[in-house]
Design a protein that fits this description.
Ribosomal Protein S5, domain 2; 329 residues; six-stranded mixed sheet; alpha+beta; Alpha-Beta Plaits
Length: 329
């Protein structure tokens, strides 16, 4: 009873920031993202006669809350499949973790899919998205490729809160996200804790939810119209507002660094120089730049030259979670 899945991170154009239900991982607002090619998490899950569940990521053994989130997904799979067996979970990633690049989204989707397949379940995308959500909220958006919207939902049990694909990876093949890695160390505060602090203490939080809900409608239309200028402007505004709500929390949460602002200023300069480019910023110091394929080489060259930038990855719209024949163990 063994299976391996590969999934890709997604970067939110309209952010998910804060839960209305901590147990079921239900958001206060809907969100919109692009699944990225070129970055991935691979996970093998095996159910067997073990004493307990065990998990590791890139050779690091997990325990405590990290292991608990994986065990929760495994428990849901076991309940659905009628299994009593324990599991071994091994994951490998090819990009920084806990640095604002949605590693938990890729990893969460891969764990959910591999666990379901190892248990003999063949879940529909909706059900797999709900399962992945229990491990990491944004993981629900990495189940499918292209452009996905996480529905906020209204049901108390979370049955209507999952991600739907609004356009596949072939819909806008010329679109690029340029991932600018400025720091790859683990954040001082996790996204999970930062969200909750923002919900509980930021005086701007309710304004954030209202703005994000309005932004989502406009961004969805701009995406389907393939209007980069409109989508980029909305994404930049949405990112600033998310970070403003976090910075207003008590104590303040500040993810950006001086190099982050240098990248953002360089993006504005590129745009002023005729290259349509727009930034977004998740819960970390690493900006992601939205642009067309034709402008990506100039964006990559300019941002790579900035002191403090470690690596730049140009990603196109990627596909959803896939099953692999080769295993990690």
């Amino acid at each position: 009873m063994k299976a391996t899945a590969i999934a890709h991170p997604n970067i939110a154009l309209i952010k998910y920031w804060g839960k209305r239900d901590l147990e079921r991982i239900l958001p206060h607002n809907g969100s919109l993202s692009m699944t990225l090619s070129g970055l991935s998490a691979t996970t093998t899950v095996e159910f067997s006669e073990r004493d307990d569940d065990a998990a590791q990521i890139d050779g690091r053994r997990l325990d405590g809350a990290e292991l608990g989130r994986i065990t929760r997904v495994l428990d849901l799979v076991r309940a659905r499949a009628g299994l009593k067996l324990k599991a071994r979970v091994v994951s490998k990633t090819d990009f920084p973790k806990a640095a604002g690049l949605a590693s938990s989204a890729a990893g969460g989707a891969a764990v959910a899919a591999a666990a379901a397949w190892a248990a003999g379940l063949e879940l529909e995308p909706k059900d797999l998205s709900i399962l992945a959500r229990y491990g990491s909220g944004s993981a629900c958006r990495s189940v499918e490729g292209g452009f996905c919207e996480w529905l906020k939902g209204e049901a108390a049990d979370g049955s209507d809160s999952y991600a739907v694909q609004i356009a596949n990876e072939e819909y806008w093949p010329e679109l690029r996200m340029v991932v600018v890695i400025c720091a790859d160390e683990v954040k001082e505060i996790s996204s999970r804790d930062a969200m909750q602090r923002s919900v509980e203490t930021s005086p701007y939080y309710q304004a954030w939810v209202k703005c994000a809900t309005e932004n989502l409608e406009s961004a969805r239309k701009a995406l389907l119209d393939k209007n980069l200028a409109e989508l980029g402007a909305i994404s930049e505004s949405n990112a600033w507002r998310m970070h403003a709500s976090a910075m207003a929390a008590n104590p303040p949460i500040i993810f950006a660094r001086s190099i982050t602002f240098a990248v953002i200023e360089a993006v504005a300069a590129l745009r002023a120089g005729g290259v349509p480019a727009y930034f977004t910023l998740d819960a970390g110091p690493n900006p992601v730049v939205l642009c067309q394929a034709s402008g990506a080489p100039r964006v990559e060259m300019r941002l790579s030259s900035l002191p403090g930038v470690q690596r730049v990855v140009v990603a196109s719209p990627g596909d959803g979670v896939k099953k692999l024949d080769r295993h990690l163990f």
